[in-house]
Amino acid sequence: MSDFSVRRLRSDEERAATDLFRRALHVKEMTDEEWSGMSASMQPERGFGAFDPELIGTVRSFDSEVTLPGGGTAPLAAVSLVGVRADRTRRGVLTALMRAQFEDFAARGYPAAMLHASEGAIYGRFGYGIAARGKSIEVDRHRARLRPEVPAGGQITLLDLESTIAQWPSLFDALPRTRPGMIARSPQLWPGYEREVRRATTPTATAVHRGPDGVDGYVTYHVERAHFGAPALLKIQSFHHASPDAFAGLWRHLLSVDLVDRITAEKRPLDEPVELLFTDPRHAAVQKIQDEGWLRLVDVATMLDARTYLGGPLVIEVTDPFLEHNSGRYRLSEDGAERTTGPADLELHADTLSMLYLGGWRASDLAIAGRVRTTGEAALERADLLFSTRVNPWCGTFF
After folding, report:
1. Separation between Cα atoms, residue 292 and residue 394, nearest integer Å
2. Contact 270, 135 (CB under 8 A)
3. Where are the alpha helices (DSSP H) in 239-314?
4. What global pTM score does this model have?
5. Is 97 in a helix, a strand, or coil?
6. DSSP summary character for residue 315
7. 239 is catalytic
8. Which residue of 164, 179, 271, 293 has the fewest C-beta atoms within 10 A of its own C-beta?
């Protein structure tokens, strides 16, 4: 075990920390011009570094809020830029960084954290669990035909690159965050999105849908091809909608874009019914299903009481070796959550509770996988109902 210390990063250390993260992902270090744009994406006082005495690891976050089952929200820390230098891995550096970050979240009143994992085997030991998943789809534009009952949709306005960049924040904020797991977008996120579209080799466009009450959806996309005349791929970068008319109207627009052969979208909500728009649903094929949002309940008692439940009561026993204050038994019902000493109906670890929390998994499925221990089938049936949600969870924001 090497001797190192963890502390909050100074502003003059942020670039070195970002370069360390990029090297950990095998990405080139930034140029001065790239850093000039990247620095705008850094929320002050949210980065931590491990030093030995040089910088050997880093982690940072930005402040947000997350939509909960039932429609409420809770403060959320969105975790990003996690990396450890290759010659210092597996020596407790990441563990120390995670502890420092969780202590910071607790001190600032952030009871939950979320991240997008570069590797699936890393974050479970810190209490993160796959709370939301997404599907990647591919639509055959030449063969896909809309069913006759699909809504016609409203007015579509196409924005060019500069208008897209200028209007992105207002477009996103105008739409309700209705799915559990959706998060508010910090001002620090938008400069990063702008950098991505400006350095793209093909132009980015945004189609905005307006219904009777104004803007209720938009889709951002670009088209790729090897050379003119080669098969062309329309790649959806973001797609948000607040009504069936907007969903259908935006898909009508995408299918109308000329010189396109296939349309793809990654990590869409599992229950988003794209294939049901078409006379042959096989023309919207699911290519893969991936983890989309990893959740960590930093303060289990607060987060359990923050969401709503169906049915109950149910007593769960949580084991949290990384944040031991969370360990214990909780009674859940339609009235909320409270600590209890009563007998437990389910036993599970903190990472499994994170998977269950947003409604993305059923307790009975987690029990089959050995992730939940139970007193019997009746308890699992109550748990399935208790944690159920009307729609699947989805984060919908990359950070």
Report:
1. 7
2. yes
3. 244-256, 300-306
4. 0.95
5. helix
6. E
7. no
8. 271
